[in-house]
Specification:
The protein has 192 residues and is an alpha+beta fold. It is 49% helix and 20% strand. The protein has a six-stranded mixed sheet, sandwiched between helices. Helix 1 crosses helix 3 and helix 3 crosses helix 4. The radius of gyration is 16 Å and the shape is globular.
Length: 192
């Protein structure tokens, strides 16, 4: 059941083309926010199993996928996520999610398979500009640095590129998502 944090993330991410595509069956923006909060709750559950969840109260969170998870654990988490997504966003939303992910994976260099992946980062719009996202990133990136790990993410939000650059995501590649027709960026933070 989505909590206040999932609803805050939904408000932060509602305009993102990826999330709009997976919640396209919504009849209105209120329903879209509810669907997205349920999607984010399932994403958080997965990240707790195969990665890390960092949060700042009920206002901001980062969901990471980390390498080194046993294959059977990752497979169970993926199966549980798929079932949760189907319940949260319906068969159409799940199909959109899988199609989007496959298209994006096809454009992601294979060398990033062992990298730390920032799956979701969001701050409730009422709390943006207070440094919450920077604190979230700093905590996990410090661990990535200690592990000498590469990190990466994708974003559909061009305005966020300077923010990520300040956190060391210096390798940027502009891509086109064939599903939504939107541009997005693959950002890589080299190992330190």
């Amino acid at each position: 059941m989505p909590d206040a944090l999932c609803h805050a993330l939904a408000r932060a991410l509602i305009a993102d083309p990826f999330y709009r595509a997976v919640t396209d069956r919504a009849g209105d923006e209120g329903e879209r926010l509810d669907l997205l909060a349920r999607y984010l709750d399932a994403s958080r559950t997965e990240a707790r199993v195969i990665g890390a969840v960092e949060q700042e109260g009920d206002l901001a969170a980062a969901f990471w996928h980390l390498p080194g998870v046993a294959a059977e654990v990752a497979e169970r988490a993926a199966k549980a996520k798929k079932a949760a997504f189907r319940a949260a966003i319906g068969a159409e939303g799940l199909t959109a999610y899988e199609t989007l992910c496959a298209a994006m994976a096809a454009q992601t260099p294979g060398a990033l398979g062992s990298a730390w992946y920032l799956s979701i980062l969001g701050t409730d719009p009422v709390a943006q500009g207070q440094g919450l996202a920077s604190r979230l990133l700093s905590r996990t990136l410090a661990r990535a640095d200690a592990a000498r790990a590469v990190s990466y993410l994708e974003t559909f939000n061009e305005a966020s590129l300077p923010f990520y650059a300040r956190h060391g995501f210096t390798e940027t590649k502009a891509l086109a998502d064939p599903v939504t027709g939107s541009a997005y960026w693959l950002l890589v933070r080299p190992a330190r």
